[in-house]
Design brief:
The complex is a heterodimer of chains A (about 180) and B (about 475). By secondary structure, chain A is an alpha+beta fold. Chain A has two domains: about 100 residues, 2-Layer Sandwich (Alpha-Beta Plaits), CATH 3.30.70; about 70 residues, no CATH class. In chain A, about 45% of the residues lie in helices and about 15% in strands. Chain A has five helices and four strands, in the order βαβαααβαβ. Chain A has a four-stranded antiparallel beta sheet with strand order 2-3-1-4. In chain A, α3 packs antiparallel against α4. Chain A starts with 5 loop residues before the first strand and ends with a strand. With about 475 residues, chain B is an all-alpha fold. Chain B has one domain: Formate dehydrogenase/DMSO reductase fold, CATH 1.20.1630. Helix content of chain B is about 70%, strand content about 0%. The chains are: A alpha+beta (about 180), B mainly alpha (about 475). At the A-B interface, α1, β2, α2, α3 and α4 of A face α2, α6, α8 and α16 of B.
């Protein structure tokens, strides 16, 4: 019988305060490749896990700048460069009348960049994950909270990590298969 | 704040404490996480109720009027509508502005109230955003078909074409093309991002129940969401930024819609009050529609624990506030028409109130200025049936507002020789009537297949969600 490769250890928690304290302990124990799974975003858990601020805003800024430049340059190109046409004696190009469309395109591009950035940073779509075939997972998006420590973590040690999770109040500690 | 202020000598001040007002409960009866999941998912998982089929049948029948109206229009020509000089913008633009305005409440709830940290938005957020999207769909029908030769509607977008013609970006109508299409797109994106975690929940429940087809389907759209906190951090940031850009977007959309009128020189249109007045009116009408939709939904699905009296109070108060702003704008328009001493402007407003279309003007005033004032009374707000009836009046009133603005100004412009009177043709009436069916069909499909409340957001606002155990 061949034993499948272990992905890591999973521990369940019944309440947000229990999860919060456990995450602080795992963080303080120096683990890096681990995660918490929650049915909703638990306020303040990012700090308890020692996570840094999200990088999504960089994508948003890039998208917004690109959108604004696209709007202005497109309007300049079509109305002042490619086919200049006098309408109502107004100038071929002015940032004033080009503004509303550029403004809308700024928002449009920002929205796409924000969502694209979020998917990229989260490595989604990812329709398979070791966690998903665990029987516990059905409650992960419902009412239970989990901490998963990966076997790939340099500090991972089957017995010691299990002890840490148990001591942090974790229940139903189990091994996840790759 | 108060800790930095030294008491100004009087000993009594040291004893003054701010009043601790208890926070309103957003979910009644101490419901827990699992109850919320069961309640919201149960609606989608249950067998299709009989009333749903009846409603769907009626809605589809009503929607066929739009289809028939449009087929006749395309087959014959835009002359089948009642438009004639000088009233070349009529029901089509009225209906466009009406529907697009309705959408605005959804974005207000999902974006502006998110930035303002109004947690009561969570339980009505998803359905209101769906309403926004479907309202934009209905709105889009009218200008697209009003161009006459609808197969050339793509000329609205700067796509290179054989005639070597580009769009005139000095025109507010072209701004509107970008505003409305951006609005529709961003609304869909925002709605979809909000759906991700709930689609994940649905996927896992269908997997556990052994329904692999639905598990695949919901799983496909859930994109493999697994509730990871490292994902949540990016997700929350993305959601916040989307709320941050949707806020100026929604304000700009109705501002630009109002530019369609305000940038022209027609008396009654050429006023600077239009942008804020249109935005307030849009939110007013949208909240009317939110209540028209949510109150029956709450009764049918017994959602009283999730959409509480507090939620209804909040919606009524926003309706009251925006309705009062609209009333103020009506008064201010009249004042400026007199104070501006422009005879054409003055005439336009006297004509609105006492001319051929006075009946429409007074319907508008009754529905938009008087109706919301009932919401001052708590007893009215606690009578759900009455709130629902009043919300219908708001919808009617806001349709008439657009009718009054558009038609009265055009029917009586500068030259008396070109004055006219506009009445809609039966084709226009059918087409507009049918859009309520289009909207209802889409909304019924939504409540059948999509969790009608963002479970992950509702769970996050109940006391158990607080990791420090203090309750909020």
């Amino acid at each position: 019988m061949t034993m499948k490769k272990s992905y890591g250890l999973i521990a369940a928690f019944d309440s947000t305060p229990a999860l919060f304290r456990a995450c602080e302990q795992v963080r303080d124990a120096g683990y890096t490749r681990w995660d918490a799974t929650t049915p909703f975003h638990v306020h303040g858990l990012d700090a308890a896990m020692g996570m840094r601020r999200s990088k999504v805003p960089r994508f948003s800024l890039a998208g917004g700048v690109a959108g604004f430049i696209t709007g202005m340059s497109m309007i300049w190109f079509v109305d002042a460069f490619d086919y200049p046409l006098i309408v109502g004696g107004k100038p071929y190009f002015s940032p004033m009348f080009a503004f509303p469309v550029s403004y809308e395109l700024t928002i449009l591009f920002t929205a796409f960049a924000t969502i694209g950035g979020m998917f990229l940073l989260n490595k989604l779509p990812m329709h398979y994950h070791p966690l998903m075939k665990a029987p516990q997972f059905v409650r992960a998006m419902d009412d239970r909270f989990y901490v998963v420590i990966e076997a790939a973590d340099p500090k991972f040690h089957a017995a010691q990590t299990r002890a840490l999770l148990a001591q942090a109040g974790g229940q139903d500690i189990a091994e996840l298969e790759e | 704040m108060s800790s930095h202020i030294e008491p100004a000598g009087h000993p009594l001040l040291a004893e003054v404490n701010p009043v601790a007002i208890p926070r309103q409960e957003l979910v009644h009866h101490g419901r827990d996480f699992h109850w919320i999941t069961e309640k919201v998912c149960g609606i989608v998982e249950a067998k299709t109720p009989v009333w749903w089929w009846w409603c769907f049948g009626v809605a589809a029948f009503v929607a066929s009027f739009t289809v028939a109206g449009l087929i006749y229009l395309v087959g014959t020509g835009v002359g089948v509508w009642g438009h004639a000089n000088p009233v070349n913008w009529a029901w089509d633009i009225v209906n466009f502005v009406f529907w697009i305005g309705i959408g605005h409440a959804g974005t207000l709830i999902s974006a502006i109230l998110c930035l303002l940290r109004q947690k009561w938005r969570t339980s009505i957020n998803r359905a209101s955003e769906a309403m926004t999207i479907f309202a934009v769909v209905c709105a889009g029908i009218f200008p697209v078909f009003h161009v006459g030769r609808v197969w050339m509607a793509w000329y609205l977008f700067p796509i290179p074409n054989a005639n070597y013609i580009w769009q005139n970006f000095r025109s507010p109508l072209e701004w509107d093309v970008f505003a409305v299409s951006t609005y529709g797109t961003v609304s869909v994106l925002f709605w979809y991002v909000g759906l991700l975690p709930d689609l994940g929940t649905m996927r896992d429940r269908f997997t556990a129940a052994g329904n692999l087809l639905k598990a695949r389907l919901y799983g496909f759209f859930a994109m493999g969401w697994r509730g990871s906190n490292r994902h949540w951090a990016n997700y929350e940031m993305a959601y916040l930024i989307l709320a941050g850009v949707a806020t100026p977007l929604v304000l700009s959309v109705h501002t630009i819609v109002s530019f369609d009128f305000a940038v022209s020189l027609i008396p009654g249109w050429h006023t600077t009050i239009f942008p804020p007045y249109f935005v307030a009116g849009a939110i007013f009408s949208g909240f009317g529609m939110v209540m028209t939709l949510m109150l029956p939904l709450r009764a049918i699905y017994r959602l009283e624990d999730l959409i509480t009296q507090y939620h209804i109070d909040c919606m009524c108060k926003i309706t009251l506030a925006t309705g009062t702003m609209v009333g103020y704008a009506y008064a201010m328009e009249f004042f400026i028409a007199w104070y501006g001493a422009n005879p054409y402007e003055g005439f336009a407003f006297i004509n609105r109130a006492f001319g051929h279309y006075a009946w429409a003007y007074w319907i508008m005033i009754t529905c938009n200025v008087i109706t919301p004032q009932f919401f001052w009374s708590r007893r009215v707000r606690e009578n759900t049936t009455l709130v629902w009836i009043l919300s219908i009046f708001v919808n009617v009133g806001m349709w008439f507002e657009r009718f009054v603005i558009i038609v009265t100004s055009l029917a009586r412009d500068f030259l008396p020789s070109s004055w006219g009177y506009y009445s809609p043709s039966i084709v226009e009436i059918f087409t507009f009537f049918g859009t309520f069916g289009v909207f209802s069909v889409l909304f019924l499909l939504f409540i059948r297949f999509v969790p009608i409340m963002p479970m992950s957001e509702v769970k996050a606002v109940i006391p158990q969600a607080d990791p420090h155990g203090t309750g909020h």
